[in-house]
Amino acid sequence: MLAALVLVAPPLAGQATALWGGGLGLGIAQWSAIPGYSEHLTGTGFGAEGGARIGRGLLHLRYLSGALGPAAGNVPARDVVDARVGVGVQALTWLTLEAGPHVRAFSAAGATERWVLWEVRSRVEASLIGPEAIGHAEVWRAFSSTVNLADAIDYVQGGAIGLTFRSLKGPYRLGVDYEIEHAALNDGKRGETWEGLVVRLTIEP
User: Fold this and answer.
1) Cβ pair 69, 77 in contact under 8 A
2) Could you tell me which residues come within 8 angstroms of residue 165 by beta carbon, excluding any fewer than 6 positions away?
3) Is 184 helix (H, G, I), strand (E, B) or coil?
4) What is residue 11's predicted lDDT score, i.e. its pLDDT?
5) Domains and CATH numbers, the chain
6) For residue 131, what pLDDT is reported?
7) Which residues on adjacent β-strands are paired with residue 67?
8) How much is the pLDDT for 140?
9) Has this prediction a pTM greater than 0.85?
10) Which residue stretches of the chain have pLDDT < 50?
11) Which of 69, 78, 172, 204 has the most CB atoms around it within 10 Å of its CB?
């Protein structure tokens, strides 16, 4: 699908290869719920993000690690690692499409809960205050997913909205995103929700 879009998408200005990257911080909230029981954990994570633009082709990498603790009660604390790789295309000047693997792992007391998702993503962007402020919205859904739990996954999907400020004195961008992702398991009897507030500082040409 992405290869076909590369062929049919209209020509875009600036077809040269460009690299970008930077750091990010994330405030995290996670909920797990089954009938009669629920968990709520919060924490922070830090990581890096970057990629390349090659003509209309896109490569996007993101990695973060952090720690979650109980918001209330005696829920065990856990470490979290979240990483994803996306390969995509800028189909239009305001629309990008992306697909790739996404891995998230929670570790506590010597045990690891590991999610492996293959996702498709779409993102739209628009200038809000000239070229200095750019708003965006993104949605995604896993077309294949596995987890090392007894419960089978019904679906995983999510979305994000954000704002990026571009410096007029250099290749610096400051962005703030709110993202939320929900997974249903075991015919809807179990729900997992991941919520994050992301702050990023990147260098982009």
Assistant:
1) yes
2) 132, 133, 173, 174, 175
3) strand
4) 46
5) 2-7+19-203 (2.40.128.100)
6) 77
7) 44, 79
8) 98
9) yes
10) 1-14
11) 78
